[in-house]
What we know:
Layout: E1 4-8, E2 29-36, H1 48-54, E3 58-64, H2 66-76, E4 86-90, H3 99-116, E5 122-127, H4 131-134, H5 138-149, E6 154-159, H6 169-178, E7 196-200, H7 205-217, E8 224-226, E9 241-245, H8 251-259, E10 263-264, H9 272-286, H10 291-316, E11 320-323, H11 330-339, E12 344-350, H12 355-362, E13 371-375, H13 377-387, E14 391-394, H14 396-404, E15 409-411, H15 412-417, H16 426-444
Parallel strand pairs: 2-13, 3-4, 3-5, 5-6, 7-8, 7-9, 9-10, 11-12, 11-14, 12-13, 14-15
Antiparallel strand pairs: 1-2
Bound molecules: iron/sulfur cluster (SF4).
Amino acid sequence: MSPVIPIQASPSPGLNAGSTGCSTPQPAAHHVLRERGQREVFCGLTGIIWLHRKIQDAFFLVVGSRTCAHLVQSAAGVMIFAEPRFATAIIDDRDLAGLADANDELDRVVTRLLERRPDIKMLFLVGSCPSEVIKLDLSRAAQRLSRQFTPGVRILNYSGSGIETTFTQGEDACLASLVPCLPSTAASDAPASGASLLVVGALPDVVEDQFARLFAAMGLPRVQFLPPRHSTELPSIGPDTRYLMAQPFLADTARALEDRGAQRIAAPFPFGVEGTSAWLMAGAKAMGVGAQAVEQATAPARQRAQTALAKVRPALQGRSVFFFPDSQLEVPLARFLHREMGMQLVEVGTPYLHRQHMDEELALMPAAVQLSEGQDVERQLDRCRAARPDIVVCGLGLANPLEMEGMTTKWAIELVFSPVHGYDQAADLAQLFARPLDRRQRLAA
Ligand code: SF4
């Protein structure tokens, strides 16, 4: 039997419910079904697909097998007009002859790459899970190569291994590896006094610009973002840094930032009108901006988003949704679908439930919701089949079989690839769930 763990969620301290028209959240004790069995997840290499687009002078060199190369290549697509900014150094049979050979080979590949590509200013050596790669010490390789290529190129390493990870942890590992490189506020050009605001988590540029504009309209023009668009624009951090998480899967990055003295701002995540309002309000409050300034700055975007959501709501209202654990976005997305789109939550599965980071989200969830953490895929499939939800959010490996069984699915990975944060994307986020339901209805007609 899987143990059931009760957890107590507290009300959101940073939430101004009045700004969104939603009722004040009440603390709720949720029961979490914890499962430790076979899992169906992608590996952390997947993060390269959005990270290489975000940090425009970075290169991601996967040290892996042919399988890793195929995964990254097929997921990211082949770029025809631009030089790619990711590749795989394939450890093959020749390298298995001895570890020293593999290190020499890696140095040779990196040297050739950096000589040929002077546009690369930051190189990530990304580990994978084949046993011969795990034996290779990539952190020592990064240090060794840094001695050769610094200051022109910064060389870092992290693991995207598929063992005991979810695919979004690749971004977490990448950003955590960046944190020690961030300049200290004391030593930087940033104003010496007063707190600074840092938004953490890769966002599409268009979304980042929207948030920057909203913060500027509240009187906060110097908000920093991690990761930056260029390796030369690393945000500075220190004890005066208050950071706001834009993604819920950044536990290691959060820990690394706190080790540097930064303090997390407790907030729900910026999905939907309610989540975005509460997130912006929490950030503004931490920086000493009053609620009225936030209300004024956000009113037009909020109104636009509410109007757009109203058009999608009839397609989702009253429909049921089942989340398999995949991206770690499940809890905030379920909160949005339930509270703003009127959907029924059958089960909200998540790979890890970070109690502290999810506190504000859980306070907004209905007390009776079935939460599950971890996975025993066969048991979960049984529960899903028994419930026959209107839509199932799951990984690619489960989507096709479930579609064959007549269920409507949504690929969890698409929710990470698509711009879904903030006011102007709220209706697009809702549409990602409405479209598969519409398609199923048309097929059935
Ligand atoms: S890191 Fe592991 S799980 Fe990911 S593609 Fe490579 S071999 Fe497969």
